[in-house]
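Researcher: Structure prediction, please.
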Amino acid sequence: MAVEEIHAEMVSSVWKVLVAPGAEVAAGDTLVILESMKMEIPVLTERAGTVSELHVVEGEVLQEGDLIATVTS
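Model: Predicted structure follows.
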């Protein structure tokens, strides 16, 4: 089983969460949308699988490197 951990690439806030734990996702699907400096930044998964854990909620402020989600395939 492969595990993909998705991390924040910059300081940002969670604008919208589009998936829930247990959701099936395809490679390239958007999991959450972050907001930084008035820009919306989609966070994508690189592989198909299942969202095993979601570590953020809408409105949360993230630091660079914070874990957003875990996808298993």
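Model: The domain at 3-72 is CATH 2.40.50.100 (OB fold (Dihydrolipoamide Acetyltransferase, E2P)).
Researcher: Thanks, that helps.
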